[in-house]
Amino acid sequence: MFDAMYVEKTATGGQQVSLRQLADEALPPGEVTLRVRWSTLNYKDALALTGRGPVVRAWPMVPGVDCVGVVEASDSPLFQPGQEVILNGCGAGELHWGGLAQRARVPADWLVPLPEGLSAYHAMALGTAGFTAMLCVQALEREGLRPSSGPVLVTGATGGVGSIAVMLLARLGYEVVAVTGRLEEQAYLTALGAHEVLSRAHFEAPPRPLEKARWAGAVDVAGGAVLAAVCASMKPQGVVTACGLAGGMDFPTTVAPFILRGVTLVGIDSVMCPRAQRVVAWARLAELIDTEKLQAVSRTVPLSAAAETAADLLDGRTKGRIVVDIP
Ligand code: NDP
Questions:
Q1: Hey, whose CA ends up nearest to atom 8 of ligand 1?
Q2: At 190, which helix (H) or strand (E)?
Q3: What is the CATH number of domain 128-267?
Q4: Where are the chain's structural domains?
Q5: Closest residue (by CA) to atom 18 of ligand 1?
Q6: Three-state SS for 2?
Q7: Residue range 74-128, pLDDT digits in tens
Q8: Which atom number of ligand 1 is nearest to the Cα of residue 185?
Q9: Which atom of ligand 1 has the smallest separation from the CA of 162?
Q10: Does domain 2-114+297-325 match CATH 3.90.180.10?
C-alpha cells in the first residue's frame, strides 16, 4: 500500500480530493516503479488539485506533474534499482498517475537520471517550473540573444517559473527586468538578481501596435494582455518566449511587432519536450543553479497539505517554489 493524493469525480459532476492509501496493484502500467521522495506544486498541479482548470484528463487521478525518487523495479535497460531519477511532464498527473504519491510507475523514457551535482530536494525545488525556465533561456540563446543584446524582461517574476528565470538569466550575465503584480516583493526580486522591478500594471492596458522598443528578450508566463504589451515593446529582432497563461489564454495583439521589428515569438512546452532535450536542460540547471538562492525561494509542505496549498498558490498567496515532502 502507498499514500497518494487522489482526485475523483463526484456524482454531481464536480471533483473531490483526498489523501488515500492505494494498493501497489492499482499503479498504472509502465516499465519503471519509483519510490518517490519529493514532489512539487506547480501552477498546473494547483489547477488539478482544486479543479479550477481542466488539467485532469483521466479519472480517477493521482496528480503531480513532477517527482524525484529512487527506482525500485525496472523492466528497462535504461534504469537500475537504486538509481535516482526525475519525472517531469509527459502527461504525469494529467493522463497518467503522477508524483504526489509515495509510489509512481511510468514508461522508462519519461525519466531522466538525476544529474550529477543536483540533490533530489533541489531537483524538486526546481521542478517543472525551473525546467520550463531553463527551456525558455535555451530558446532565447538559440535565437541569438546574448547578454550584450540588451535588457531581458521576465513576467510573473515572483512565481515559480519567473523566479527561476530571473536567477538563471542573472547568473548568465543578462540585465534582468522583473515584472510583478506585487511591487512589495521588490527586495525578493533584487536578491534573485533583477536589475529593475516594474509593476505589472504598466503591461495590462491595451497596447498600441508598437510601443517604445525596450527589451531584447523576454520570458512571459502571463499570456493575455501582458504578452501583447511585451511583444509591442520589444527591440528590433527581439525574442519572446511564451510559456504560460497566468493572465489569460487570449493574445490581443497585432502583427506589427513581428513584421515591422522582426520580433520572434517562441512557444515553450515542457510536457512533450523530447527526452534528449530534457537530459540537456536538467544538466544545464545542475550547472547553473545557485542552490542557496534556490533554497531561499522554496518552502516545503507535507503531502497532506498539498490541496490547501494549491488554493493559496492560485489565489496569489505563495511565491517562489513549493516542494512537497513525501514521507
Ligand atoms: P506560479 O503561480 O508560481 O506563478 C505565476 C505568477 O504569475 C504569479 O506568481 C504572478 O506573479 C503572475 N500572475 C498571477 N496572476 C496574473 C495575472 N492575472 N496576470 C499576469 N500575471 C499574473 O505559477 P508557475 O510559475 O508555476 O507557472 C506560471 C505559468 O506558466 C502558468 O500559467 C503555468 O501554467 C505556465 N507553465 C507552463 C509550462 C509549459 O510547459 N508551457 C510549464 C510550467 C508552467 P507576480 O505576482 O510576480 O506578477
A1: 159
A2: helix 186-192
A3: 3.40.50.720
A4: 2-114+297-325, 128-267
A5: 247
A6: strand
A7: 999 999 999 999 999 999 999 999 999 999 999 999 999 999 999 999 999 999 9
A8: 47
A9: 25
A10: yes
